[in-house]
Every structure is written in structure tokens, then in C-alpha cells.
């Protein structure tokens, strides 16, 4: 989860949206989750525990988890996956879970 609160997120948001930090919030999942008041949402999020971006604080999934836990309209299933980083094998290992999740909740 790239957040406006991380240095990598700030670089990305500046590059895509410019310097107006207030305009970033509508694209930052941590802020949108905090303010969401629509129909019940189910979210599945997997994060590799050995992801170098996580360890460098470039990803802040705990911020999204905190925002979701404070919102009765969102049920977040946040799974930290030991032994995985940010690469191909991480994605391939959990892709089927995400396809099944999407099929259950969208189709």
C-alpha cells in the first residue's frame, strides 16, 4: 500500500498529481478507507514480510489496516506472508486466492 505518508508515496504522488498534497488524499487508500461510508466492503490484502519496500517503510500497509479497523463498513483481511518479498513468486503464490476472492465478491 503506497501511502502519501511514505517517502516513496510522496515521490509518486508528486510525480502524478503535482505538489498539492490535499489533492492526493482521494487517491490514497488510507484516507479513502477512513472516510468511506458506502455499502459493506470486503478487502483482501497480502503483503510479503520480507519485502524490502516494507522494511524501508516505502509501503505502510499497517496504516490501511488501522483505517479499515476504524470503519464499520470495511472488512479487511490483511495477511502478512512470511518468506515472501515483492516479486513474481509472491504474486503467483497468492494470485488464485485473489481471483477466487474477486469472483466471490464481484461476479
Q: In words, what does this structure look like?
A:
This protein is 50% helix and 15% strand. The protein is globular and about 40 Å long. It starts with 6 loop residues before the first helix and ends with a helix. The longest helix has 19 residues, at 88-106. It is built from six helices and two strands; from the N terminus they run H-H-H-E-H-H-E-H. With 107 residues, it is α+β, with helices and mostly antiparallel strands. Helix 3 runs parallel beside helix 5.
Q: SSE layout and pairings?
A:
Layout: H1 7-17, H2 21-24, H3 29-35, E1 41-48, H4 52-55, H5 61-69, E2 74-81, H6 88-106
Parallel strand pairs: 1-2
Helix pairs in contact: 3-5
CA gyration radius, whole angstroms: 15 Å
Fraction of residues in helices? 40-55%
Shape: globular
Trace the largest sheet across and list its strands.
1-2
Structural class, by secondary structure, is: alpha+beta
The ordered H/E elements are HHHEHHEH
Low-confidence stretches: none
Calculate the terminal CA-CA distance, rounded to whole Å. Answer: 25 Å
Largest sheet: 2 strands, parallel
Mean pLDDT: 94
Beta-strand portion reads 5-15%
Number of strands: 2
Number of helices: 6
Give a summary of the structure in a few sentences.
The protein has 107 residues and is α+β, with helices and mostly antiparallel strands.
Task: Describe the structure using short key phrases.
globular, 2 strands, alpha+beta, 6 helices, two-stranded parallel ribbon, 107 residues
Amino acid at each position: 500500500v503506497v501511502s502519501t505518508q511514505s517517502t516513496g508515496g510522496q515521490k509518486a504522488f508528486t510525480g502524478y498529481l503535482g505538489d498539492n498534497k490535499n489533492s492526493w488524499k482521494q487517491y490514497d487508500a488510507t484516507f479513502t478507507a477512513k472516510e468511506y461510508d458506502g455499502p459493506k466492503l470486503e478487502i483482501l490484502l497480502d503483503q510479503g514480510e520480507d519485502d524490502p519496500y516494507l522494511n524501508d517503510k516505502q509501503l505502510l500497509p499497517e496504516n490501511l489496516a488501522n483505517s479499515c479497523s476504524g470503519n464499520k463498513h470495511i472488512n479487511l483481511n490483511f495477511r502478512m506472508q512470511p518468506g515472501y518479498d515483492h516479486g513474481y513468486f509472491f504474486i503467483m503464490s497468492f494470485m488464485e486466492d485473489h481471483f477466487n476472492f474477486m469472483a466471490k465478491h464481484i461476479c
